[in-house]
Structures are given as structure tokens and as C-alpha cells.
Amino acid sequence: MPFPTKVQLIQRKASEQWYINFPSALAQAMDFVKGETVEWSVHRQGFTCVFAPPGRASFPSPFKKNSALLLTAFQQLLGEATADLPDRMRSRLARHVLAQIVCLGTHSVTSLLSSSGRLAQDWTADYRMYSRDRIEPDALFASVRQNLLDHLPQDSPAVVALDDTRIRKSGRKVSGAKYTRDPLGPPFQVNLIWAQRFLQLSMASAADGQARMVPIGWRHAPHPPKPTKNSSEQERQRYREDSHKQSLGVVAGNEMARLRSWMDDHSQAQRPLWTIVDGGYTNRTVLKNLPSRTVLVGRIRSDAKLYFLPESTTSKGRRRVYGEQAPTPEQLRTDESIPWQTVAVRIGGEQREIRIKTLGPLRWRPAGKDHTLQLIVIAPLRYRVTTEGKHLYRSPGFLIATDPVASPQEIVQRYIYRWDIECNFRDEKTLLGVGEAQVRDPHSVENVTGVAVAAYALLLASSHNLDPSRDFTLPNPRWNRRHYSRATTRQLIQQLRQDLWGQALHFSGFVSAKTQPQNAENSIANPYHAVIHASRFG
Known about the structure:
The chain is an alpha+beta fold.
């Protein structure tokens, strides 16, 4: 699009000066900065170009044309994950994965087709891709796992958090749905919800001195159907066996064993695996089925009965496994003869100091004789509701680790990483709409949700591959002066929409981050900000 301008000339006795008014749209598109030096070059007769010399001091605008850094990294990682699929299935899955991120509104399969512009075409193959089990979400997660491990130092362990979540459903014929306890219910009342149960694994990726949990595994862990009153004894026995096989402890143990085996098969046999769990997985089922070269860190009860190692004896008979009884975690916390230690950890992007006590080596009967433990007690952290209010205290924390010689600071820091998996659950349900697809088939239930979580993992992993010193996200609103230590999931989604749709929404071809004077009618008719910054929740 040409921009007409006038050429001015000032003549003097010994010289003459030429002036050209440079159009504002061109200056914004070329990221000119006030006061910088540019160079003119005659390309050919009648055509002149201007460019900035190398090392210019200007900052690249996030709106710059052809600067789709996040989209390029996302498509590259997605291409590696789908390289083994046939061409038609590969392109179809790629459309669905990208639509899971940029979709506006409810994340149903129909909405995914709408976001990818496929409403006017036959949708049968898209639905059968999930119901006929023609794709494997684990292949997408495998690419993310390999990408994260490649960025870790050789001597750094793989830190993985493991937890389960519930997805509410309304249909009575949805596979795996059952009445279960509401984890968000008040402590004084047990509430029941009709929901599905899923297990997720997230791996920590170190970036800028802190870690971000990226999903690397997703498994549907349904309860077995309860037999009716008229069921036979064989059916009831089968139900009891299935209840044990499909319990969260057994499923978690199988997932850890599968991950450890995958690491051994992909040149990661020498890298230790640290699994960080909550109190629900610090039990006999998980500890006694822990894979080799795997360390487990989890919460423990305040009244747990622990034992010192037995003293070596030369007497005949069976060798003792447990020695004298050690103090319980609560007794260790209140014992004033044992001093508190101060360790520095990173919480919320800031360096903080917390007080701890340690005790070990120990044994615990649910862990058995194969695991020697280390106990860590975290002192209650104080906080204020208001700046002038009184100090309140949180509950103390009691941790055990199956590595008795590990640094307490590393154990506490890696357990703090576990909180980010809760942020994963929040983003998956609120921003990505995991579980909103109305599917009932068992294969569709696991594949649709698995692809959605894998799309979220690819988004986080692709942002981790970019240069951390370069700000590739859109600028914050003028009223938001907060500086984020890392790009939020909402910012990544907005940037991916900008990379994908920005040029199509701006018909002039030039996008400016500066505020242009517009009346109310023209502003509301421009769909750019309404689409790019759209959010399902506030």
C-alpha cells in the first residue's frame, strides 16, 4: 500500500538539505525509535530503501510482522511429536491440538472444528479419531518429556510431581463417572460430586532460577462399577480385585514404573528420578512398589511411628530390620533440644528462608526394609492478612524422603515445586476447558482430555525453548504494572492467537502497540483486541 508524501528542499549558498516526511504507519511497522540512526540505500533507479544498521538500540515490538516466535516453536515441537503418523491423521491431529489452545468459548469437539474452519466439512473422521483410538496422547507427551530432559544438565535429576484431579460431569452414561468426594468442599461437610478421576504427571523445567511444572502424562483412573444387590459372590470378588487394581496407589505406581522404563529406553538410565507426591500417595502401596533409581518425597502424618536403624549384633537368629522407636514428627517439632536450621528456597519467584529440623536415617513399616528414610519438619510460616494485622501461622509440614543423604534444602525446594501441578489443574480446567467435550465412549474420554492436556504441555514446553532474555509476549494492559517472573498461561495463549490471527485481523497490515485516537464506534467494531485478549474467566 503506497503512502504519498512531499519532498522538501532548503537551499543555501554552500549546501542544500532535503526533507521527507516519513509516514507514521511505516515507522511503526519498522519499529523506529526516536533518536536512532538509520541508513539510506539506493536499490535501483526510482526505488530507495531505508534500514537500520546492525546493533540498533531499538526494541522489537511484539506486534512486528513475521515475528511469530511462539507459533514457530509450537509447530516445530508438534511436528516432532506427530512425525510417525500418516499425513492425513497428522494434519488432523495438528489442527485439533492448535484449536485446543486458541479456541474461544466451550472446548467441545464442535468448537474445535469451528476454530479450525471445518464446520462445512464432514466431521465423522474427527470424532472417530478419538473414539476409534487412532491417536495416542502419550506420543505427544513423549516429545515433551524428551524436550524437557534435553534442557536439563547431565547431573540434574528429573523432578516429577504426581497428583489426581476430578472433572465434573452431568451425563449418567459417561464412562468412568461416579459419585466421589468434592475436594473443594468445606472441612465441616463432606460433599459428593458426579465426576471422573484422572491422574497427571508434571515434570519441572528449570528456567530463570525457578521451575515450571509441565504435564508429561495423563491417565484416566476410573472406579470400577459397583455390583448390584443381586450380584453373585464371584462378581463381588471380582469387584474387590478390580478396586485394588484401579486404586490410585496402584495406578500411580504403574505410571512411575512406566516413566522410569521410558527414561531407561531413551538414554536416561543414569539420571535419577525424583517423584514428589502429597500425603495421599505416601503409603505402603506406593512405597513398596517404587522403581529403582527413584526417590520419593511426600508428606507424612504428624503421629507416624518411625524407627531408628537397628544396632549391629553378632547374635544368631533373624536380622532385625527396625531399631528403637524414634520421636514422631510432632515430637521432633516440639523438642527444644534439637535446634532449627535455616535454608534458602525459592517460592513465588522470590528467595525466602524457612526453618526446618531433620532426623535420619529412619525406617517406617509402610516403607519396609528396602527404604531408609529422612524426616524433615518445616516450621509454620507466619503471615498477615493486612499490613497492620496480627501474625497468623500456617500448619507445619512433615516430609519424608527415600534418600537419606540428600540435601534438606534440595528436598524442600523440590517439594515446593509440587504446588505448580495444582496450577496446571487450574489452567487446564479454566483456560483450556479440559473435560468440557461431551463424549461418552471410554476411548474418547481419555483421548479428548489427553490431547487437550498435551496441547497445554506443548505450549509450555515451546515457551521454554525460546530465549528467556527476549520478551515475546504481548504487553500488559496500561493499568497492569505488575512484572511477571515468567509468562503466564493466559499470556502464552494470547500470544499464540496473535501469531496465528494477528495479521488476518488487521487488514492494513500494520499493527501498532501505541494507542490510536478512535471513537467508540470504531473501537468496538475492531475485533482485534476482543479476539486476541478474550478470556473465558476473569
